[in-house]
Specification:
about 425 residues; 9-stranded mixed beta sheet; two-stranded antiparallel sheet; 15 helices; glycosyltransferase; Glyco_trans_20; trehalose-phosphatase activity; EC 2.4.1.15; alpha,alpha-trehalose-phosphate synthase (UDP-forming) activity
């Protein structure tokens, strides 16, 4: 007998599960949820112990947030169990599997504020493209089982049609689709609302303390630009969307995008993933547009976070601020369920292993070994912004050497710091253009 996932289950095991599930009728909602969870566990256990598999040999590795919400007495190590085998893209693909095999090369539209390449204009119709630096780019380079298209801003203002056409053509070779934002929109949307309002708040830094009337006026204009920019992203997505595509929206820059996309096509598969912390409901409550942003995100089919705590904070904000019901699978609003889960991000490790074989990499490794010969090397790689704790790291290293003089001249700290948000003074260290050694 075949299960809905295409894995074999022996008749005896299935009969046993059915007998267990019907041995008693749950008398409460909590008991029913616990019974369903135990049934899923038993089913997964039967799958993992079955010797025979389908021809594709793939096991279902998706785990829902059911495994997160358990009674306090049973919580134990469930958080650690939850992180095993998660893949956010696989959860989005629930509606696109055939019996025994996945549809080959499913189209995936990745939508982020910035494209994975930066455009530099050389002439009226000539552009040079350089790979952008960032964690999102590094993480998504490992996705190769989908036919991916990346939609985002190229990081440059292109007001003329000739430049837009030529840049669109150049980006198409990289499977990228540009969203053209004018300078004022970028200033109000990206430098303003995204990095002056949302970014500090999501990192528990609070809203900017300025003159109240001036803050209110700037907030309103920045929020309007934020909604306008999100609508512009949605217009481009809708232009290139095909039936069956999965749209994957990224980060706090595009919290309005799921709602905009669903207004175009309610059947569109939409996921949204946050690459920063999501604050507790008490912190999120201080944001004037809190309810509107939450409801816009809830328009997505799946909402993802890095950790269990961030997912729990989001569900808590929806229940306490919007008055909605948090369920084991996510958040329910008038019969519409938005799944909420944690998906720890990773990198394409094979790329790093292969890079070790490059001659220029080998030469650089040799140079570093000669430079730091006989000393322990401590390496730090961080973005150069206030939340990364780089000054604290240097002070801690200084204190270590003061308290352990035997290690002086025997250990060295190498700090690699990548400048970020250079147009937003609030997010930068003073003199952050200087190199750290």
């Amino acid at each position: 007998m075949e299960s809905s996932q295409g894995n074999s289950i022996s008749q005896n095991n299935l009969d046993e599960l059915l007998m267990q599930s019907t041995s008693a009728i749950p008398t409460s909602r909590v008991e029913r949820l616990l019974r369903e969870r135990e049934l899923r566990r038993s089913t997964r256990y039967s799958h993992s112990n079955e010797e025979s598999k389908d021809s594709n040999g793939d096991a279902d590795m998706s785990i829902s947030i059911n495994d997160l919400y358990v009674p306090d007495g049973e919580r134990g190590n469930r958080e650690e169990d939850f992180f095993e085998g998660n893949a956010s893209v696989k959860n989005l693909m629930d509606g696109y599997e055939t019996q025994g095999a996945r549809v080959p090369k499913q189209r995936l539209l990745v939508v982020a504020n910035r494209l994975p390449v930066s455009a530099i204009r050389k002439s009226e119709d000539s552009w040079v493209l350089e790979i952008s630096v960032g964690g999102l780019v590094s993480a998504l380079l490992g996705i190769n089982e989908f036919e991916a298209r990346w939609i985002g801003w190229a990081g440059v203002n292109v007001p003329d049609e000739v430049g837009q056409r030529s840049l669109t053509k150049a980006l198409a070779e990289k499977r990228c689709i540009p969203v053209f934002l004018d300078e004022e929109t970028v200033h109000q949307y990206y430098n303003g609302y995204c990095n002056n309002i949302l970014w500090p708040l999501f990192h528990y830094l609070g809203l900017p303390q300025e003159d109240r009337l001036a803050t209110t006026r700037s907030f309103q204009s920045q929020f309007a630009a934020y909604k306008k920019a999100n609508q512009m992203f949605a217009d481009v997505v809708n232009e290139h969307y095909r039936d069956g595509d999965v749209v994957w929206c990224h980060d706090y820059h595009l919290m309005f995008l799921p709602k905009c996309l669903k207004e175009y096509n309610n059947k569109m598969k939409v996921g949204w993933f946050l690459h920063t912390p999501f604050p507790s409901s008490e912190i999120h409550r201080t944001l004037p547009s809190r309810s509107e942003l939450l409801r816009s995100v809830l328009a997505a089919d799946l909402v993802g976070f890095h950790t269990y705590d961030y997912a729990r904070h989001f569900v808590s904000a929806c229940t306490r601020i919007l008055g909605l019901e948090g369920t084991p699978d996510g958040v329910e609003d008038q019969g519409k369920l938005t799944r909420v889960a944690a998906f720890p991000i990773g990198i394409d490790s094979d790329r790093f292993v292969q890079a070790l074989e490059l001659s220029q990499v080998k030469d650089h490794i040799k140079e570093l070994k000669e430079r730091f010969a006989g000393r322990k090397v401590m390496l730090g790689v961080d973005r150069l912004d206030m939340i990364k704790g780089i000054p604290q790291k240097i002070l801690a290293f200084e204190k270590f050497l003061e308290e352990n003089p035997i290690w002086r001249d025997k250990v060295v700290l190498v700090q690699i710091a990548v400048p970020t948000r250079t147009d937003v003074p609030e997010c930068m260290y003073p003199h952050s253009h200087a190199k750290l050694y």
